[in-house]
């Protein structure tokens, strides 16, 4: 049986699109960039600087300016333009009651992740948070998961990663973890299956049965 469950934040615990969209548009407006709004959902999951470069054609230096502007809006308003997915709190409570240790592993910077968890009253379910740094020293999901394992003394063979994007699944595989891909987020079944997710959860409540299957129950 697995003792530790690592959870992605955006698209897994919370529906963050409104705040992320508004933060991106705020940054783009001030830099006089435009992007098709249909591309904005793709920003959820990958490192932000990569999304600005790939989706908006920015140079690395311009992407860094965009991130600073994004955070200007996000820190004041965007992080609250968010909601917890229906059923997530029940899942977290159930997992804790069965003795699982829960950790957040997110590509969001630590300061924002902590504020979101506190604001939406999710912090009580988790024993800790492993997140991205405000600089680019830790932004890739594989590095964030590795940091979680090291920081909390977790064996890869004793942990499962739950997330909605290929980055979560690939990051888990890079560290030797099993993974559960959630279909209610932003990746979709094709992306998650191609990345090699061990189980798929259509709804938040399905995470429990996926954990049970991996546990061999």
What does this structure look like?
This protein has nine helices and eight strands. It is an alpha/beta fold and 217 residues long. A six-stranded parallel beta sheet has the order 5-4-1-6-7-8, with helices on both faces. Strands 2-3 form a two-stranded antiparallel sheet. The longest helix has 17 residues, at 60-76. It is globular. The chain has two domains: 4-15 and 83-215, Rossmann fold (3-Layer(aba) Sandwich); 17-80, DNA polymerase, domain 1 (Orthogonal Bundle). Helix 6 (141-151) packs across helix 7. The N and C termini lie close together (9 Å). Strand 6 (159-163), helix 7 (166-174) and strand 7 form a beta-alpha-beta unit.
Keywords, separated by commas or semicolons:
single chain, 217 residues, alpha/beta, Rossmann fold, DNA polymerase, domain 1, 9 helices
Corresponding CATH architecture of the largest domain: 3-Layer(aba) Sandwich
Radius of gyration, in Å, reads 17 Å
Question: Kindly, what is the distance between the CA atoms of the first and last residues, rounded to a whole number of angstroms?
Answer: 9 Å
Q: How many H/I helical runs?
A: 9
From N to C, what is the helix and strand string? Answer: EEHHHEHEHEHEHEHEH
| Approximate helicity band | 40-55%
**CATH homologous superfamily assignment of the largest domain:** HAD superfamily/HAD-like
Task: Provide the structure class.
Answer: alpha/beta
> Which shape, going by the Cα principal axes?
globular
Return residue spans where pLDDT drops below 50 for at least 5 consecutive residues: none
CATH topology value of the largest domain: Rossmann fold
User: What is the total number of structural domains?
Assistant: 2
Question: Quick check: average pLDDT?
Answer: 96
Biggest sheet, strands in spatial order? 5-4-1-6-7-8
Please summarize the sheet with the most strands.
6 strands, parallel
Find the count of extended strands (DSSP E, 2+ residues).
8
Q: Indicate the CATH class of the largest domain.
A: Alpha Beta
Strand content: 15-25%
């Amino acid at each position: 049986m697995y003792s530790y469950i690592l959870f992605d934040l955006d698209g897994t615990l919370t529906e963050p699109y409104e705040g992320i969209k508004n933060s991106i548009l705020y940054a783009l407006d001030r830099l006089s960039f435009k992007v098709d709004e249909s591309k904005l959902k793709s920003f959820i999951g990958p490192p932000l600087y990569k999304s600005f470069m790939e989706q908006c054609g920015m140079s690395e230096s311009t992407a860094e300016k965009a991130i600073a502007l994004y955070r200007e809006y996000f820190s004041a308003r965007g992080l609250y333009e968010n909601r917890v997915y229906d059923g997530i709190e029940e899942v977290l409570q159930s997992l804790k009651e069965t003795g699982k240790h829960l950790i957040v592993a997110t590509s969001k910077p630590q300061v924002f992740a902590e504020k979101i968890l506190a604001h939406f009253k999710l912090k009580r379910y988790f024993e800790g948070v492993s997140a991205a740094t405000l600089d680019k020293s830790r932004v890739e999901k594989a590095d964030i998961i590795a940091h979680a394992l090291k920081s909390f003394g977790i064996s890869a063979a004793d942990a499962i990663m739950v997330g909605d994007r290929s980055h979560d699944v690939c990051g888990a595989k890079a560290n030797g973890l099993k993974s559960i891909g959630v279909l209610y987020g932003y990746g979709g079944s094709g992306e998650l299956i191609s990345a090699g997710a061990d189980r798929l959860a259509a709804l938040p409540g399905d995470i429990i049965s996926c954990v049970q299957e991996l546990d061999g129950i």
